Input
Amino acid sequence: MQLLLAAHGRPRALDLPSALPQVLLEQQEAAAAARQLRRGIVLTLLCTALLVAAVGATWYGSGKEKGLMRFNTPGAKVCGTVQRVSGGEAVVRTSDGDVVVPLTTLLSMAPVSDCPKG
Output
């Protein structure tokens, strides 16, 4: 906005009989445009810095989670990464190998940060 105001001026209405001499009007308008231009430059640099910070935060933010899930069924508790889900079954990669978990028998499932040993 400040850059637009600096380039085009602030819209205003003047009474012609009470208007200041043209030279004084132009000097006031030039001073106002210079202030608005300085503000606009500062705000543009601030927006650029915020944009760089936002991109940096998303680019270098927290690492990808391991994607571990814990499945509780009546017969067992299975913990690992889900490889695929199809036909009512989830294939979970555990430390002991791939385990097929029938989703119809599932009591609960939850994301976990690490799987218990054993």
Notes: Strands lie at 68-72, 77-86, 89-94, 97-102, 108-112.
